Amino acid sequence: MRIAVDAMGGDFAPREIVAGAVRAARTLTNIKTLFLVGNQQAIEAELAKHGPTPSNIDIRHASEVVGMDESPAIAVRRKKDSSIARSVELVKTGEADAVFSAGSTGAAVASSQLRLRTLEGVTRPGIATVFPSPTKPFVLIDAGATTDCSPDILLQFAAMGTVYSRHILGVDKPKVGLMSIGEEDAKGNETTKETFGLLEKSHLNFAGNIEGHDLFEGDIDVVVCDGFVGNVILKTSESVGHAISTWLKKEFTANPVRILGALLLRGALKSFKRKIDPETYGGAPLLGVNGICYIGHGSSSSVAAYNGIRSATEALRHDINHLIVEEIKRLHASP
Questions:
Q1: Complete DSSP assignment for 157-226
Q2: What's the predicted TM-score (pTM) here?
Q3: Closest CA to 77 of 116, 100, 111, 112
């Protein structure tokens, strides 16, 4: 497998991205070549901190970087030598099989759509983000790639999310829930109501509408919504998770007795942190594009970068894009 890594993407790039890439190159035996794309001098300086450079690392110079505050559409058109553009280009030309970037999500989506196009039968791509729940993780799609969706696009999201849940998360028969403002099929706007009808007639395991309080109950495996709603859910969940961690730390260090209690609960607290830590997955796939693209959080550490690269190899191992095309064909074949 050959993975292109946007070494300059992210708040802590290239330091953390290179560190994660080195670990991946050394430990993931299925990686034949790992391309580090970005400023060659900066990448080499970071590589020098980690001892001998693994033989399967290949540096590809890119003179530009897309900033988090830049307009993705404008940046992709103007910065043709950006690290994200060059990374995606490696996939387009066939030199790489997948790309990982923790840089601008908008730029990663725009570059992938422009250069890779979409898979057969797919209208728009969707970001499939994995969330934890008390019993098992679930997939939310879309988390921000396509903000305005027609019912047909939401139906495709359900199919792509089902494939990801089944083959990557190991759920035998994923249950699909449509995000709305009520469980009844008459609730929601015209788009969700029409989507409800399409899902009900499809071969997918549709469980009906779900509301916000259903998300973390562990009963739904694939949550379907447009990218606007999904991104709000994602950012709100991240904020709540951070707030809970901060509150717990403050309360457990309030006095010596609580500190002792925290020490006794250390194992449970570490387990809890692992379950809600997004770095466990490292990134979210942009499903529906004609190539494997994983998008990491802007604040990705070396652990997140490593796991993002590892997740990309898992998607390749399962040939996820072929499975998506087959699932979309089943949708079109449904009466």
A1: HHHHHHHHHHHTS--SSPPEEEE-SSSSTT-S-HHHHHHHHHHHHSSS-EEEEE-GGGTTSS--SEEE--
A2: 0.90
A3: 111
pLDDT tens for each residue of 272-288: 566 656 677 778 999 99
Lateral strand order in the sheet of 98-101: 57-61, 33-38, 2-6, 98-101, 292-295, 284-287, 126-131, 138-141, 222-224, 176-179, 206-210
pLDDT of residue 295: 95
How many Å apart are CA 169 and CA 163, to the nearest integer? 9
User: Is the Cβ–Cβ distance between 303 and 14 less than 8 Å?
Assistant: no
Structural tokens at position 269: 């607290």
Six-digit token string for 152: 């047909």
Q: Classify strands 284-287 and 126-131 as parallel, antiparallel or unpaired.
A: antiparallel
Distances, alpha carbon 173 to alpha carbons 159, 162, 203, 222, in Å: 12, 8, 11, 10
Q: Please report, for residues 93, 127, 247, 315, 325, the alpha-carbon distance to residue 319 in angstroms, rounded to integers and kept in the order given.
A: 18, 17, 42, 6, 11
- As given in the structure block, the two tokens for residue 120 are 């057969």
Task: Select from 297, 242, 284, 248 the least CA-distant residue to 103.
Answer: 297
C-beta separation of 139 from 128 below 8 A: yes
- Cα angle 151, 157, 163; round to 5: 145
CB 141 within 8 A of CB 129: yes
Percentage helix, strand, coil for the chain under 3-state DSSP, each rounded to 5 = 50, 15, 35
Partnered with residue 3 across adjacent β-strands are 34, 98
Confidence of residue 196 (pLDDT cuts 50, 70, 90): very high
Per DSSP, the residues of 49-62 read: GGSSPPTTEEEEE-
**Gyration radius of the chain's alpha carbons:** 20
pLDDT tens per residue, range 148-162: 999 999 999 999 999
CA distances 154 to 77, 157, 242, Å, are 28, 5, 30
The confidence band for 175, taking pLDDT boundaries of 50, 70 and 90, is very high
